[in-house]
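Q: what sequence does this backbone want?
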């Protein structure tokens, strides 16, 4: 292993450990995302560490510490490389006390949140990954028979490691989503919860629904759960558009200005509103950056017959022109 590869591996290990902590500010999250995208090897090394983290659940404590020791000199070069990777992440993780337990049934609990305009990437002990959108708050609780996430605000993308013995359940105030391993997005709005599936299959239930009443979604499908806990029938979605926020984009494809205003408000300190129902029914197709919603507001009057005015409280409103 050359010096450059070792350096990247060390950087990946440091980022991996840092992202487990609840307090990661916006600027540090942006630095991580920039580092991750700067070179394919960065992402590859980071994903290796996520896989190793998951694998530690299957090993006893003595074996974990043994992996941090130098392997026999007779080992082949490829084996040496594997030991080096394992030792890198295990030594750092053990050193900062990230292992709350060293077996498959260990409990794990953590809270994660993002501020206005912040996105965050979190790796969980089982190898699952959560990407948090702006203004998102969630609680993670792992127990022997279940992996539970309570999404109290915002939106998150879940990439779940398969574990048939421990279902992965995401709950909001109106319903829950249950999987054993898949990739899906959950968004909690004021009046509903939206679920979109990118890979695999999920089961969506209303808040008070019995266990045998649910809507099953597969890749490319979505649903909504209303304020009363009623789950809509599955419908086709464009997962790439709905999850474009992960790359800092807002994608609108024939979206009503009412929906545009609601989406943009997630990324602004003050809400954006539409003046009338007629204005709200106008449709927009375009792509903007989520960290520059002012550019969207400047562009709107040149796209549609509208204007944007600022109200006394600092919020803004789209009006007819």
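A:
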């Amino acid at each position: 292993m050359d010096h450059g590869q070792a350096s990247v591996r060390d950087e990946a290990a440091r980022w991996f450990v840092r992202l487990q902590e609840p307090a990661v500010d916006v600027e540090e999250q942006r630095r991580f995302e920039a580092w991750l995208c700067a070179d394919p090897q960065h992402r590859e090394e980071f994903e290796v560490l996520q896989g190793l983290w998951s694998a530690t659940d299957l090993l006893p404590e003595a074996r974990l510490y043994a992996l941090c020791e130098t392997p026999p000199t007779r080992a082949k070069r490829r084996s040496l490389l594997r030991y080096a990777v394992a030792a890198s992440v295990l030594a750092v993780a053990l050193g900062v006390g990230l292992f709350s337990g060293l077996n498959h049934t260990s409990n794990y609990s953590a809270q994660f949140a993002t501020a206005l305009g912040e996105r965050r990437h979190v790796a969980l002990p089982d190898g699952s990954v959560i990407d948090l959108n702006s203004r998102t708050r969630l609680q993670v609780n792992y127990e022997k028979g279940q992996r539970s996430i309570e999404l109290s605000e915002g939106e998150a993308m879940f990439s779940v490691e398969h574990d048939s013995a421990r279902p992965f359940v995401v709950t909001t105030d109106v319903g829950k989503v249950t999987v054993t391993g898949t990739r899906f997005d959950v968004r909690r709005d004021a009046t509903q919860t939206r679920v979109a599936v990118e890979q695999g299959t999920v089961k969506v239930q209303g808040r008070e629904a019995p266990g045998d009443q649910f809507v099953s979604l597969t890749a490319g499908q979505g649903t909504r759960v209303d304020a009363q806990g009623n789950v809509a029938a599955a419908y086709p979605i464009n997962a790439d558009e709905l999850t474009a926020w992960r790359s800092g984009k807002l994608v609108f494809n024939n979206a009503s200005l009412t929906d545009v205003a609601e989406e943009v408000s997630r990324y602004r300190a003050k809400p954006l509103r539409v003046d009338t129902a007629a204005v709200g029914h106008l449709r927009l197709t375009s792509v903007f950056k989520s960290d520059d919603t002012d550019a969207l507001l400047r562009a709107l009057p040149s796209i549609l017959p509208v204007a944007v005015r600022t109200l006394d409280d600092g919020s803004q409103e789209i009006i007819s022109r």
